[in-house]
UniProtKB/TrEMBL annotation:
GO molecular function: monooxygenase activity
SUPFAM superfamilies: FAD/NAD(P)-binding domain
Designated name of the protein: NAD(P)/FAD-dependent oxidoreductase
The keyword NADP appears for this protein: yes
Domain of life according to the entry: Bacteria
Family affiliation: Belongs to the FAD-binding monooxygenase family.
Length: 543
């Protein structure tokens, strides 16, 4: 038995499969393994309820950037007919209600242990078992270990000098208190202007006495144009569920709209402006799909980037603030493009100010607030860290996973994540990583990517059991080929040009700079995974 398994006292509960996490991925994986394959399954979940991302991210303004009719499970027609979304983009509370509805509808809770954070997992080759430890001192064993921990669940709280001396309260958006935060009458500082900060700022500004936004990297944002859904649309989405499913399975990013086939160079500047205007008015992620070459051709991208910078200058009244907000150093959509409700308008309020950290970096946090390198001190009662996540690898590496012969995942991935299809790691038999690094995941509409991974894993385990196969793990040469292909796919786009993006791990000091998600497109990826399975799990060692 492995040292990790020995470390915790108490009896060990043995099941066929352990799933870590009860968000979209964990819930569906439990349903598939238990209700389709008849396996005994234990889900271990750190939170006190289902929801994953949507359980933890309760910050003001938290809302999904995928449209609600597409941000849902499509595996069950009854579920699709059962549930009705209220707004174009679902808010955090509504998504959490939806996932609770799913848990109830499929009777999932009885196999989920809440408040149970996994702290270690070790593979024992002699018994072909994974032994799992939890923070609460419980022990579990299973043949299959499936991580459904999400890509953006390990909070990145920057280690700014003096943080713990701050006399007020500080919060990270991804670990938001269940009871909420009362901003009324408070001087609030918010660090970070990614998707989260851009959603939170307008809502915080409504309540706070004053909001100071500390911006390090200026960002594009497109109005979401959120609104209640009409009865006609709700009916249409239900009546056309099968067609929507087909469409989302066939697009590059799993959204229910196609990327235009035309190039930005095929049209006149006036036509281009009209196309961008129409997409801007429509709102959301449609602008990224206006031309096929926005993400592959720098000159084409410049046309979109310039259009969006001009919109910031239209909205923001103070020219100096507009200049800081529109001084964006990366091509549009090479960092995850935020969408917003009134973000740039927020800077026209009297109680909002902007600090340009590129011009005056933070020196330290003091008991009274934030001190900048030029000696200016911003007095604050609350600091909000909208500073993102140790993405993709963080949630896995924080779990202390040890494969065959005690190989630590952290050692296997010292130079960056190495997976085959984002699904498995060499040396870690029967470990499956839903939306792991090397999969399209964060570049797509997540539930669509999750359904595909969960179904592939379920089919794979069914195959193993039918064929009497005890173990599956990728062959090292298949991993090498896949890692090279992931790099090649990223380099065929402009995505690596945003040198400070979390896609590259650049937001976490010391993290290897490797482009982590697979940029070759979800439709192509689905096809590859299906072909690999059809060829007898080509590239995997089965034994
Ligand atoms: O995090 P981010 P996020 N000092 O990493 C800044 C998803 N999401 O939570 O760019 C000062 O994007 C950092 O600056 P820089 C979505 O995929 C989805 O906003 O590193 N600033 C940046 O401005 C998204 O991409 C929805 O220079 C510091 C910000 O903090 C992902 O989550 C909604 C700093 C972090 O931006 C992460 O978004 C919301 C420091 N030390 C989020 N450290 C949906 O709708 C970091 N920053 C589904």
């Amino acid at each position: 038995m492995s040292p990790a398994a020995d470390a915790s006292p108490g009896p060990e509960t043995t099941v066929d499969a352990i799933i870590v996490g009860a968000g979209f991925a964990g819930l569906y994986q439990l349903h598939c393994l238990r209700d389709r394959l008849g396996l005994s399954v234990q889900v271990l979940e750190a939170g006190d309820g289902v929801g994953g991302t949507w359980y933890w991210n309760r910050y003001p303004g938290a809302r999904c950037d995928s449209e609600s009719h597409s941000y849902a499970f499509y595996f069950s027609d009854e579920l699709l007919q059962d549930w009705t979304w209220s707004e174009r983009y679902p808010g955090q509370a509504e998504i959490l209600r939806y996932l609770n509805h799913v848990a109830d509808r499929f009777d999932l809770r009885r196999d989920i242990r809440f408040g149970t954070r996994v702290t270690g997992a070790a593979y024992d080759a002699a018994t072909n078992r994974w032994h799992v430890r939890t923070e609460t001192g419980e022990r579990f064993a299973a043949t299959y270990l499936i991580t459904a921990v999400g890509c953006l669940s390990a909070a990145n709280v920057p280690d700014i000098a003096g943080r713990d001396d701050f006399a007020g309260r500080w919060y990270h958006t991804g670990l938001w208190p269940q009871e909420g935060v009362d901003f009324r009458g408070r001087r609030v500082g918010m660090i970070g202007t990614g998707s989260t900060g851009i959603q939170a700022a307008p809502v915080i500004a409504e309540a706070a006495a004053h909001l100071t936004v500390f911006q390090r990297t200026a960002n594009y944002s497109i109005p979401a144009r959120n609104a209640p859904l009409t009865e006609d649309f709700k009916r249409w989405a239900k009546d056309n569920a099968a067609e929507l499913r087909r469409l989302m399975h066939s697009t590059v990013n799993g959204h229910p709209h196609r990327i235009a086939e035309r190039s930005a160079h095929d049209v006149t500047p006036e036509e281009r402006e009209a196309i961008y205007r129409a997409a801007w008015e429509k709102g959301g992620l449609h602008l990224r799909a206006a031309f096929r070459d926005i993400l592959t051709d720098r000159a084409a991208n410049d046309t979109a980037s310039d259009f969006l910078r001009a919109r910031i200058r239209d909205v923001v009244k103070d020219p100096k603030t507009a200049e800081i907000l529109s001084n964006i150093d990366h091509p549009f959509a090479t960092k995850r493009p935020p969408i917003d409700t009134g973000y740039f308008e927020t800077f026209n309020r009297d109680n909002v100010s902007l600090v340009d950290l590129r011009a005056t970096p933070i020196e330290r946090i003091t008991p009274a607030g934030i001190l900048l390198r030029d000696g200016t001190e911003h007095a604050l009662d609350i600091i909000v860290f909208a500073t993102g996540f140790d993405a993709m690898t963080g949630p896995l590496l924080r779990m202390d996973i040890q494969g065959r012969d005690g190989l630590a995942l952290g050692d296997a991935w010292r130079a960056g994540p190495q997976t085959y299809l984002g699904l498995q790691v060499a040396g870690f038999p029967n470990l499956f990583t839903v939306t792991g690094p090397g999969s399209p995941s964060v570049l797509t509409n997540m539930p669509v990517a999750i359904e595909q991974h969960v179904e592939w894993i379920t089919d794979c385990i069914a195959h193993m059991r039918e064929q009497g196969i005890a173990r599956i793990e990728p062959r090292p040469e298949a991993v090498d080929r896949w890692v090279a292909h992931v790099n090649e796919a990223a380099n065929a786009t402009l995505l690596p040009q945003a040198g400070h993006s979390w896609y590259l791990g650049a937001n976490v000091p010391g993290k290897p700079r490797v482009f982590m998600p697979y940029a070759g497109g979800l439709a192509r990826y689905r096809k590859t995974c299906a072909e690999v399975a059809a060829r007898g799990y080509e590239g995997f060692a089965l034994g």
